[in-house]
């Protein structure tokens, strides 16, 4: 990665330095999802896909995301959860998908396989944080923002 790319990446990462306001759980959950998405995307672009450091960065980011979704799952399973039943069931189904997908990716690490998890995080975060944008620009798909010069996946980490 050249110096200009590093500066560009550093500028994009600064967008995530905003800390959520205490007492606003939806905002906090959305921030956590975006932070996990950012870390997964950043790990993907941290170096060549066959580099041991890049692979370890990807695994660490995946594990962080998995822990976050495990926390959501535990909260949704709590009998005192205030989340409406329909949303709770849908979110638990999504938690199950994230669990299964994460195990698959950790078994055979792949940048492309991480894209759906990044997209899920971004989309759920948008809903939690009431982010509204024109439909053609709504947080964008990680797949859409990826380009592959020299066959190395790149994901736009600027959500």
Key attributes of the depicted protein:
Four Helix Bundle (Hemerythrin (Met), subunit A), single chain, mainly alpha, 0% strand, 159 residues
Short description:
It is built from five helices and no strands. By secondary structure, it is mainly alpha-helical. It is globular.
What does this structure look like?
By secondary structure, the protein is an all-alpha fold. The protein has one domain (24-151): Up-down Bundle (Four Helix Bundle (Hemerythrin (Met), subunit A)), CATH 1.20.120. The protein is 62% helix and 0% strand. The protein has 5 helices and no strands. It starts with a helix and ends in a 31-residue tail after the last helix. Residues 133-140 and 144-156 have low confidence and may be disordered.
What does the secondary structure layout of this molecule look like, with pairings?
Elements: H1 3-14, H2 25-44, H3 52-77, H4 85-107, H5 111-128
Task: Quickly count the domains.
Answer: 1
Number of strands: 0
Indicate the radius of gyration in whole angstroms. Answer: 16 Å
Q: Any guess at the CATH architecture?
A: Up-down Bundle
**Weakly predicted, low-confidence segments:** 133-140, 144-156
Mean pLDDT value? 81
Distance between the termini: 21 Å
Examine the coordinates and then state which fold CATH places here, giving the name of the CATH topology.
Four Helix Bundle (Hemerythrin (Met), subunit A)
Oligomerization state? single chain
